[in-house]
Write a structure and sequence with these properties.
The protein is elongated and about 60 Å long. The chain is of the alpha+beta class. α5 runs antiparallel to α6. 64% of the residues lie in helices and 14% in strands. It has nine helices and four strands; from the N terminus they run αααααααβαβββα.
Length: 184
Amino acid sequence: MEISAGIKASLAGRYASALFDLASEAGTVTAVESDLDKLETGLAESPELKMLTTNPRVTRGQAEKALWGVAAIMGLSDLTQKFLGTLAQNRRLRDLSGIIRAFRSIAEAQRGEVAAEVTSAHALTDAQLADLKAKLTAREGRTVKLSTKVAPELLGGLVVTIGSKRIDGSIRTRLNSLSQAMKA
């Protein structure tokens, strides 16, 4: 498994690596990944949960107790619950989003996958997504997991981001390049 040095070096990456190692030993990587997806959704949809993880006035004990309740409601695994308690005790809950992203990257690398974000001016059809996924998988030599966004300001074309690589085939970028060339 190849994990980028940036992930390993970051605080979030160190926590994510430790959680991944524990989940691997317990054989619960998929369950923990599912738990983290639920947490990420909760952070995005619940201002209260987001505030709980970022407010410095919330004590360690209060945060831990509240997160145990949230974990029970969400049906999170014991390992994830204990991990959240550790984050609360270490005052690292504000890093939870980064830890989730780092864990996902580590798990994808373990499975031989790579995540790609595709931004298009209009929603892509299932056939277009399947064709794009096949081409990106052939290009990368690994299974590609696509996430999509729609950004009408692109005017047309696609912007594909895989890790730190970006392939910009949008009409907006082409028009900007043409405009710059005409000014010179």
